Amino acid sequence: MEGNNNFFWEFYDCPGDKVTRQLKYEDFPWMESFLKESFRAISPDRSRVAVFYRFFDLVTVADLSSGRVTQFLPEGKSLSPAEVQDVDRRCLYYKMGRCTDDYVFGLYAGGLSVKLEDDPRYKDRNTLRIYDWEGTPLYKYDFDERVRTFAVDEQQRYLYAVTDSDAIVRYDLKGLSAGK
Length: 180
Prior knowledge:
With 180 residues, the chain is an all-beta fold. Helices cover 3% and strands 46% of the residues. It has one helix spanning 81-85; strands at 7-13, 18-24, 38-42, 48-53, 59-63, 69-72, 91-99, 104-113, 127-131, 137-142, 147-153, 158-163, 168-172. The strands form four sheets. A four-stranded antiparallel sheet has the order 3-4-5-6, with no helix packed on it. The longest helix is centred in the middle third of the chain and has 5 residues, at 81-85.
């Protein structure tokens, strides 16, 4: 194969033993200027993928059936390729992400400096950002303390978070509705 082979997703026809379609990082808007370090989460029905970028405030959603890619920023923000590429100004945004059939959950670090010891906000708690699959911000929840990781139990409608103090905290998601 020639050219750039950095494929994000490939669709494979097993009986035909061939790749039928490819979705490349380079097909995503902005990818020519951004680092690709990110966390990826696939929807339970395996039809969509959300990408949460560590070093810039952006979430990408790819519909794996159609190949449609949607990227969304927090309201009122814009992206500057020069800022993202400047290592000395780099910040941490998304620590991780998860998906359900209805929602995209991003654990947001708030733009902390990568030189954590230099950032006075290092001990600040982080935020859970919840979007629909179109990128509409639905909810923002400030945790009581810093969260390292989380999991979503879609069937029981709970979110379980592990804090920096190793506590496991359960949050009730029953009030969330895709129609809200």
